[in-house]
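Section 3.1 - Work completed
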Amino acid sequence: MRSEFDDIRAHITAEPPRPGDLLELVHSLLDDLEQLRSRESILRSHYLALLVAARATVAADAGGHPAPLTFLRHELAEHGQLPDQLPDDEQAQRVLSDAAAAQAMLSPLDETPPRRPRTARGPHCSGMSRRLRG
């Protein structure tokens, strides 16, 4: 994926810039894709840290650790997500409601989407020796 972006960027950079040209749009789209890839990497690292903390919490609980929530509390506090300690049950109910809503929204994402039939398109890049038609 990265080399395809680099190939496309190198090809369009070699062309002389023309205002209002399609190449400007391609530059913009490639920049957006790069930003999205960076954000995805950051989100994956946060997810991994949270997953590790959750697993450590479950293992600590199973092992009889005196404070099994330490790992999870630390990770949530790192990102400012530790629920406030309210004297009543309101905060806990709000957090549990948010968790149920998130679970309902994420459930369809686990399903494999149906494959769309591929149709012939215009020129495209493929294989090891790609060439873009200009």
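Second construct:
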Amino acid sequence: MRVFSTLLIPMMLTVSAAAQDLDVIDEAAIEVPDFTEIDGGMASYYGNELAGNRTANGERFDPGQLTAAHRTLPFGSMVRVTNMSNGDSVIVRINDRGPFSRGRVIDVSQAAAREIGMHRSGTARVKLALLSDD
């Protein structure tokens, strides 16, 4: 037992000293994006049927990208879309106009729909938050 202790104590001190030398992440230094709640309602998504078509801002629609259509937000706006039924959220970039279905507030891409778990149902009640430009 004495031999074990003489081996164990120096090893524990070495491990303890090494742990103190590790860089500790300063949580206060991590920048958390600042969002402003802007809207809520029903969301839908569009997928492969529109792949390759031009969006309202002129780029080609890619259902694999995290993009969305909104009636009024400026192109390039970053919006957090949160599915109210499961709490999952995704950040999308506005690159198109719409939705044109009555009662819908946003159309997200197929990739975004998968991220928030609405790809099977096709629609979900969501809340929207706009990423600040700060």
